[in-house]
């Protein structure tokens, strides 16, 4: 009997609404977040809540904070496989499915049903600090970093790289998928892997 090929985008949920929400077009985060972040920054600037000096300092810091968060979430949350049926199911939905089906193009960016509540909670926490001059541009930088991550993650799986940089990025991430899943946790960057000693030293060409 010939082996059966894995479906490209298998069903994750029995409930049709959850199944529908688990699939997202790669443009969806940008359609939602780019106008919202631009509007938030423009509003804060117009109201005098922040200014150019704070934006130039805190927006890049927010981007770096995302990169640290990206690594931390990927390494210690996404790769935590759980200890019982519920936690193992949580892992399967959160990240296990992606490793089992890395070619599932419909599930390469985070669904809005997951990212929007997280973004709202982070924004609310920062607002409670009552220092909008710093927290508004930091928040914009943090979510801009998240969008860059989503874009690069989608591209490494869905687009054939045409530049040396793109090939290196793809090789880095495909090594995580197919060669050494305990390395190369950064996707939009490599520096945190270097910092923690989890950067895979030898990498072959990226796999499709």
What is the element layout, followed by pairings?
Layout: H1 16-21, H2 28-46, H3 52-78, H4 85-100, H5 112-128, H6 132-158, H7 164-178, H8 191-196
Can you offer a commentary on this structure?
- By secondary structure, the chain is mainly α.
- It is globular and about 55 Å long.
- Helices cover 64% and strands 0% of the residues.
- It has a domain at 26-163.
- Helix 2 packs antiparallel against helix 6, helix 5 packs antiparallel against helix 6 (132-158) and helix 6 (132-158) crosses helix 7 (164-178).
- The relative contact order is 0.15.
- The chain has helices at 16-21, 28-46, 52-78, 85-100, 112-128, 132-158, 164-178, 191-196.
- Mean pLDDT is 91; it is low at 1-5 and 203-208.
- It has 8 helices and no strands.
